[in-house]
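request received
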Amino acid sequence: MHFLLAKPLVEELKKTLSKEVETLKSIHKKTPKLAVVLVGNNPASVIYTNKKGEMAKSLGIEHETVVLSENPSPKEVKNTIQKLNIDNSVDAILIQRPLPRHFPEEDVLYWIDPRKDVDAFHPEQVGRLSLGLPCFKPCTPQGILELLHYYQFQPAYKLACVVGRSSIVGKPMAQLLLQENATVIQCHSKTLNLEAMTSQADLLIVAAGLKGLITADHVKKDAIVVDVGIHREGKRKISGDVCFDEVSKKALAITPVPGGVGPMTIMMLMKNTIQAAKLHI
Amino acid sequence: MHFLLAKPLVEELKKTLSKEVETLKSIHKKTPKLAVVLVGNNPASVIYTNKKGEMAKSLGIEHETVVLSENPSPKEVKNTIQKLNIDNSVDAILIQRPLPRHFPEEDVLYWIDPRKDVDAFHPEQVGRLSLGLPCFKPCTPQGILELLHYYQFQPAYKLACVVGRSSIVGKPMAQLLLQENATVIQCHSKTLNLEAMTSQADLLIVAAGLKGLITADHVKKDAIVVDVGIHREGKRKISGDVCFDEVSKKALAITPVPGGVGPMTIMMLMKNTIQAAKLHI
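response:
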């Protein structure tokens, strides 16, 4: 049994990304800069935003958090982003989610210039991904693939099953697996016989957002299992969409929660920021 | 056994679309107009372009074919399309494929204004489809869904298998099926055990481009089978990706080739053209 721990890859990525930043600075006189727009003061959002800032700083990436705490209108947020779009010193922009409910989600997807859209939420980016054109790859699915590659698991020719069809994880995950020549089953809340689908998969990726959804019965012997879920139980314990104890006995490899997929997402955000900076040299 | 013949639906669509055109003309003083750009004089392309023109005419849609036969440069074609983009009388534009090989396919996708892009090839349209936002739906997959609905087959809760992953059929088909709450298996040329996948499907959609790929052994008893393939054998006979004779004995329903999917595609082009015209009133 292999535990697909993010930590060794994260350490490696920190080194390579720092070097890339160093090269951009010394050869191209370009310091990559990430701007995070934080609306309101949701405590979890503040924590996530700070984490992104700290990681950026540790890699030599410049970082700015634009805090709009006084209940701003969508127009004010849009104006702020438009200033960042035309600011040549800013390479990458993201809006920390969730936004207040009254924000027009469809419009928001268009606010960030696609060339700075490191979360890859802009419809044009989503389309480019589906078409297999060069683009920013959504951070979580990209992080999962890098983690699999790092541990020498290649999706090509495998039967992969993705549980979940969100725009952030499930759908782009299926697209990326398809591009790597996996055969892909996409399951979701309306799948009638989930176990019949998941139990066939050589590679099972679970992004359903339901604690403990996947038991040992759902998993093929010697499958590779990736758990995208994060659920807090009480103050300390964090668990995923997969019943780790029983599934880990049956799987060939499994990502732990925490310490698996989560840390990869932020690293891919840094990678995309550096990619964006390269577009601007 | 049901034969999913396009004809009765095509006749119905002709009536409803003609009425819509009539309403646009009488109430909104708007005549929908489709412009087709034909590069070179490939005989098949000329035939397809003529067919589109005839269908448009029969529905009261204005139609223009811009023929660029003298080996035009990509820049010339782009300029032609830009004129159509800003021409307020033109609601819908398509470029007849295939284009000459030296045309930069990625650039071409961006030439047509997304609001006039009735083939839905623009990356923004592709992204909007994946995100479930209002958009033009690619003609062939949309036509398949309308055909299924017409014969009272709903994809929801079914296990669907799509064979093929092209940007024109396979990928958008999977997206649309997912939106209708089917569970979707996407297979392709790198799928190791195709039969094990296809034979599970309640709804099997074959867009592989390989004559006779799907035999009775590939099909679950009482499955619904949709054949997107078109292969010419000699002068008269046309067949599909599915071995019709043997599969039709096992399936609950099947589209014939010709007379199944093919005629739906052009009707959906007309539907998208009217949708585009509505954007411009």
